[in-house]
Amino acid sequence: MPSSFTLDDATAELDHVASHADSVSVSLESVSKAFIGSNGEPVQALSDISLDVRPGEVLCVLGASGCGKSTLLRLVAGLERPDSGRITTGADVVEGASLERGFVFQDHRLVPWMTVRENVELGLHRLSGDARRHAVDAKLELVGLTRFSAAYPAQLSGGMAQRVAIARALAHQPRVLLLDEPFGALDAITRMQLQDELLRVRASERITTILVTHDIEEALYLGDRILVLSSRPGRVRTILPVSLPRPRDRADPAFGKMRTTLYEQFFQHSR
Ligand SMILES: Nc1ncnc2c1ncn2[C@@H]1O[C@H](COP(=O)(O)OP(=O)(O)OP(=O)(O)O)[C@@H](O)[C@H]1O
Ligand SMILES: [Mg+2]
Predict the structure, then answer these.
(1) Which has the higher per-residue pLDDT, 224 or 265?
(2) 35 lines ligand 1 (CB under 6 A)
(3) Is there an atom of ligand 1 within 6 Å of 67 CB?
(4) Helices (H), 143-252
């Protein structure tokens, strides 16, 4: 990320970017999912989840470990099929994986023997050479890694590698961006930098985004709304709109008040 880029810049950009024409809604209608556990018994991961994510919205998903957050994301991605219920993006029913839904995992999952550029290019073979180069250049610039395009993953810091993973997901021009604890393995400072990075991406792309996190503050800093899931089986506990103005200030008393509300919500149902 260029060090001169500030949150004010991100907000200014946000103000100038009209809502992304291709933004789509994501809807879950009474979605349930069970798995067969190690003892052969079914484990109900999610139960009767109904939810509408608005076009261009950032929805953060909070919940205790094992409550089904990753399952929810994998269902929206089409990597898993629901046992019952329906998931749609715009007018399309989700029936399998698609590059229209970009996925960023907690660990970057970059191919170690490919450069940054080659990693971002992966899967773009349908584009001509020039178009491919342009798409990769644009996304590397967006995440501030132009200078590192020839580096290998082992030569990057954890935060840089995660930025490459975000650029790779964005290179396909997805209509939905799904992030599963993307900053979970990073130290606190890098994490905050990457949160600002994501706001910057949002300012320019306006992609409908679902971000799973364990971190209440991260959800408050990034989310337009926060979905809190109850413990297993995961159900919608509450959906909280975050009415704080952007750029958000973690030291703002209103931010602190919402943090307290969320802690209460979170620990009430985590017990
Ligand atoms: N492929 C699978 N096979 C069997 N059980 C699974 C599978 N995937 C998930 N589960 C079970 O479903 C439940 C929800 O798992 P999931 O990974 O969605 O939780 P999570 O909220 O993402 O947890 P964490 O915060 O620890 O990442 C857990 O009990 C898990 O053991
Ligand atoms: Mg998970």
Answers:
(1) 224
(2) yes
(3) yes
(4) 158-171, 188-205, 216-222
